[in-house]
Amino acid sequence: MRFRGSADTVEAEFRPKVTDSTGRTAADVLVRATSGAGTRGTFDVTFSYKAARSGPGLLTAYSVSPADGRPVTATPCR
Which fold has domain 2-76? Predict the structure, then answer.
C-alpha cells in the first residue's frame, strides 16, 4: 500500500494502521513527515500487509502519547 500526504504531528511522527474486516491489525508502521509540531510536513510511504480475511478494511492514522505510549488522535483515512 502506498500512503502519502501531509501531516502536522508532534515530532513529525505518526502511525498508519490497517485493520481487516474482523478488526485485526494487518499493518502498523511508523511514518516520519518532513516537519511537524505546528508545521505541515509531507510523507510518502509504501508498506505491505496481509489481512486475515477478505473484505473491507480500514486505514487509521494515529499518534502515540509521549506520556504513556497510548494511541491518541486516531483519524480514519479516506
Answer: Immunoglobulin-like (2.60.40)
- Which set of grid coordinates corresponds to residue 17? 494502521
Closest CA to 1 of 65, 70, 49, 66: 49
Contact 9, 35 (CB under 8 A): no
Q: Give the pLDDT confidence of 44-64 residue by residue, as tens digits.
A: 999 998 888 888 889 999 988
Structural domain spans, the chain: 2-76
How long is the chain? Answer: 78
Q: Are 25 and 16 spatial neighbours (Cβ–Cβ below 8 Å)?
A: no
Q: Supply the DSSP string of 21-54, one letter for each residue.
A: TTS-EEEE--EE-S--SSS-EEEEEE-----SSS
pTM for the model: 0.80
